[in-house]
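Q: Could you write out the predicted structure for this multi-component system? I'm mainly interested in how the pieces pack against one another.
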Amino acid sequence: MLKECIVTEKLTKCYGNVKAVQDLDLTVYSGEIFGFLGPNGAGKTTTIRIMTTLTKPTSGRVRINGLDVVKDTEKVKKMFGVVQQHLSLDRDLTVRENMEFHARLHHLSSSERKRRINELLDYVELTEHADKMVDTLSGGMKKRAAIVSSLVHEPEVLFLDEPTVGLDAQARRRLWDLVRRLNSDGTTIFLTTHYIEEAEALCGRVGIIHQGRLIALDNPLELRRKLGLITVETLVDNKETHYKFFADRAAATKYVQNLPPDVKTIIIRDSNLEDVFVELTGQKVGDV
Amino acid sequence: MSDALKDVYSILWVDLRNLRRHWRSLVATSLVQPLLYLVAFGYGLGKGISLEGVSYLAFVIPGIIALTSFSTSFSGAASKLQVDRFFYKSFDECLMSPVSLYSIIVGKALIGVIRGLISSFAILLVGLALSPMFIISPLFVLVLLVSCFVFALFGVLVAFVIDSHQGMSTFNSLVILPMTFLCGTFFSLSQLPAAAKAVLYVLPLTHSSECLRATALAQPFPFWSFCVLFAFGLAFFLASVFVLKKKSV
C-alpha cells in the first residue's frame, strides 16, 4: 500500500494575469523519487516554493503527510528539506557553520548537532572540507554541502530544485548517486529539472508541466510506450530534423525503407524521455 | 518565550560568526565617518564657539554619538540582510525553517544593535577624552541602547522593502545621509524655522540626539522624545512583520 506524501489539489498560483500554476493535481508517494519536468518558466519553481511555504497559493492546497502547508506551516517545515536552484548557503561561513546554522534553526540540541553534522559530512565525503569557507569549494562540493545542510534535521522529504545546473559531468553523476543513496535510505525525493536525462536516470515517476498545467504523469517507460519505443530521425533539405515514433523496430524499418530518396541522414534509435517531452511541450527544453 | 529567544539567538548566531571574522574592518570602517566629523566640526571648526551655554565640542559629541549609533546600527542590520536576501539567498533558509517571523526580525536587527553599540562606545571613549563635560549615566546607556535598536529595526524594514542594491544606495544618499547631518546632530533645532523643525521632528534620529545630548550635558530630559523613539521602534517592527508577511504571498 503506497503512502501519500505530497498531495496537491487544484493548486493554482497567479501573478497578476499570469497563471504560473493552474489546477495542479498531483500525488507523490512516500519513498519515491519523483521528477517534475518542464521548460524554463513552466511553473516548477513556483510549485516548489508553494510546497515549501515560501509562496502562498492563490487557490487550491498542498498537504505534506496530511498537513496543510498554509495552515500547519510550522509543523510542515520540520518535515522537509530544500535545496534551492541557486546556492543558498551563507558564503561568509564555513560548511560546518552553515550546517550548524540549519541545525540551530531546527532546534537540535548541541550534542545532536555535533553528531548529526559529523555523520552527514562523512556521508557525502566532505569531512576534510568542513572548515573551509563555502566560496573556496568546487561547484559539486557546494551542492553537496547545500544538500547535507538541508538534511540536518532528518526530513522525510527532500526538495531538489534543478540540483545539477552548472555542474560538470563527474560532479553530476556523483550527485545522482547521492540522491539514489538518500532515497534508498528512506528519503522521499521531489526533484525538478529541465535536464531530461536526469529524470530518466533517477526518477521512478515523472510529471511534465507546461505553461502551468500538468500534461503528463507516469513512469518514464510508460510515457515512452505511449509515444513509441523507437524513434526515426530524418533530415530534410539539410534544414530541419523530423522525428517519427514507432511501436517497434519492424515498423520503423518499414517506414525508413519507403522514404523518398531525397530524405537524408536517417537515425533509428530507442526513443527517450526527451522525445516524449518535446512532443508534448512542442519545443526544445530551455528554449522558450 | 524561551524558545523564541533561542530562535532569535540562532538567527543572530550567523551574523556574530561573520562579525567575529571581520570585526576589525567592520569596526574601523564604521568609525571613520564620525571621527572625521569630530575632528572637522568639533575640534577644527567649533573651537571657541559655544552653543546653548556649552562649548561646541561638548555640544556636538552627543550628536556624533547619536549619528554613529544611527548609521552603524542601520547599515549593520540592513547591509547583511540585503546580502542574505539577494546574493547569498540564505534568508530563504530562515523563512523555510520553523522559526517565527518575529524571531527572525529581532534576530536580524540584533546584529545592527551590537555593531551600533560597539562603534558608539568607541566614539564615546574619544569624546570622554576630549570633553570633560561629558556625563555617562545609566539613562544615557539606556537611550543609546534603545536608539540602536530602533535604527537597526529601521534597517531591517528598509532591507525588506527595497529590492535592489541600487535602490539601497539611492535610499542611503537621499534619506540616511541627510538625516545624519540634519537631525539635531551638529546644530540645535531651536535655531530653525518652525516648518523645518516640524519636518525634522518626524525623524527618529532627531529624538535620539536630543535625548542623548540632554543626559550627557545634564539638561532636563525630554521624556516625550524618548517615548517617540520607542514608538518608532514599535512601528518599524510592526511594519517589518507586515512587509515580510506580504512578501511571502
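A: Regarding packing and overall arrangement: Chain A is about 35% helix and 30% strand.
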